[in-house]
Structure formats: structure tokens, C-alpha cells
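Q: What residues go here?
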């Protein structure tokens, strides 16, 4: 007797919910919630590759305001039996146990290699990939330091939340919205993938990243592997879907 085929796995990243530079944050969240709810009965798993929230810090006894529609959609999706995996990005870095326990999802920090519907995937947000500036390495390490987290949590949220949103908005304004054209010869993710395959001598069918806000499905030269960057939900409203045969990128309208 043949096993019943599994439903596809969906991938999203870089929604940046709650970002002050998004013109209509409420409409943005409703669109994201509609996408999540559309997966009920159609997906076996939703994998979120980081920066789902533009800022998030979990305190021991209180939860920040906002995101009710999106969190509710995630809860309904989890209750329907769909597995949810949330990779920490550089904006939603402070995910601890609240959403994990309340919604029933898995939180992953870093790089994960796993099999999905018969293919091997390497999954990560991507902020730790490639040659990082010393200043960014320092900030990234500081944000993950437990003592720094405890000291930060001692500051009243009225100050920390406002500061975090201003920082995020100024960074986005500085970088601008013009999308960097994908150039395989000058793409750190490509170099990372090729180095990984060469140094580990292991099979990876798909490398999947967020972080870069570009929409890419690139066959790695000299290999049978693909490198995928999932785009974002600021300009693309994109997602990935893998059905066991092929990985494709699509747009949610």
C-alpha cells in the first residue's frame, strides 16, 4: 500500500511586521495573516526564515503590544496540525519561549540542515553568512549575550521599543528601497554555498536564505544544488513552496 503523499512545505522571510517605514502596518499584518490562514489544509509545514517581526523582545511576565491577527493566524495554523518553524533573524532575535509555548512552534537560531520531503535543505536567515563587518559581528554577539539581554530587559519598554523602531527605520532609510541586483560573482551567499559543498563533501539540494530581500533561485555552477533567497514582504510579498519534486517561488496577492 502506497503512503499518502504529504502536503507541500512553505517558506517565507523578512515580513518586518510592525516596521514604522511600512505605509500601512495594519494592512500589512492582515495580508500576512491571510497568507498564513490560507495554508490551513494545504501545507504540512511553514518555515519562516527570520525577520518576521521588525522588532520583538520577550519579557518574563509581559508581551509587547501588536501582532494579534498574525499570532492568531499562526495559532490556528498550528492547531490545524501544520508544523511551524521560526528561524531567528537579526530583527526578531529575542524570541525566547513565549511564542514557542503559546502557539506551539519551533524556534531555531543559526543554521539547520534537515531533510524535507526527501531532499536535503540547509536553512538559515543569513545575517551570519559571509564576511561580516567587525561592527556588525560585535553587535550580533552582543545581542546574543545573555548578560546583555538581562541588562536590556531591565530598561523600561517605553524606551527600548521606541529606540529599536527608530534604529530599524534609520537603517532602512539609509539603505534605501532600491533592490540590489543579484550578481553571482559578488554574492556572499553563493560563495558560502560553494564553500560548504566543497568543505563538507555533503549533499545539499537546496540552500534557502532570507535577509537579502532579493528574490533568487540560482542553480549553483558545477553542482546539482540550488541557492534560494526568499525575497521579502516589503516589496515582493513572496514565498517559497516545495512539493517534494521542485522548489518554486511565488507571490501572494
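A:
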Amino acid at each position: 500500500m502506497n503512503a499518502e503523499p504529504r502536503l507541500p512545505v512553505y517558506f517565507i522571510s523578512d515580513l518586518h511586521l510592525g516596521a514604522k517605514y511600512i505605509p500601512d502596518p495594519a494592512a500589512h499584518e492582515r495580508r500576512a495573516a491571510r497568507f498564513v490562514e490560507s495554508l490551513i489544509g494545504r501545507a504540512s509545514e511553514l518555515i519562516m526564515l527570520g525577520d518576521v517581526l521588525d522588532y520583538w523582545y520577550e519579557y518574563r511576565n509581559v508581551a509587547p503590544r501588536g501582532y494579534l491577527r498574525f499570532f492568531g493566524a499562526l495559532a490556528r495554523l498550528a492547531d490545524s496540525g501544520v508544523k511551524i518553524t521560526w528561524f531567528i533573524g537579526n530583527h526578531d532575535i529575542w524570541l525566547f519561549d513565549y511564542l514557542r509555548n503559546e502557539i506551539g512552534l519551533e524556534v531555531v537560531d543559526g543554521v539547520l540542515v534537515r531533510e524535507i520531503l526527501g531532499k536535503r535543505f540547509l536553512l538559515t536567515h543569513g545575517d551570519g553568512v559571509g564576511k561580516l563587518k567587525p561592527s556588525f559581528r560585535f553587535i550580533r554577539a552582543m545581542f546574543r549575550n545573555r548578560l546583555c539581554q538581562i541588562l536590556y530587559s531591565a530598561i523600561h519598554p517605553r524606551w527600548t521599543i521606541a529606540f529599536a523602531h527608530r534604529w530599524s527605520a534609520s537603517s532602512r532609510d539609509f539603505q534605501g528601497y532600491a533592490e540590489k541586483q543579484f550578481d553571482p560573482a559578488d554574492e556572499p551567499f553563493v560563495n558560502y554555498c560553494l564553500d560548504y559543498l566543497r568543505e563538507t563533501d555533503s549533499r545539499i539540494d537546496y540552500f534557502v536564505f532570507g535577509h537579502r530581500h532579493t528574490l533568487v533561485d540560482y542553480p549553483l555552477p558545477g553542482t546539482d544544488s540550488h541557492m534560494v533567497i526568499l525575497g521579502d514582504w516589503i516589496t515582493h510579498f513572496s514565498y517559497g513552496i516545495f512539493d517534494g519534486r521542485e522548489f518554486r517561488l511565488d507571490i501572494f496577492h
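A: Context that may help when evaluating the design: The chain has seven helices and eleven strands. The mean pLDDT is 86.
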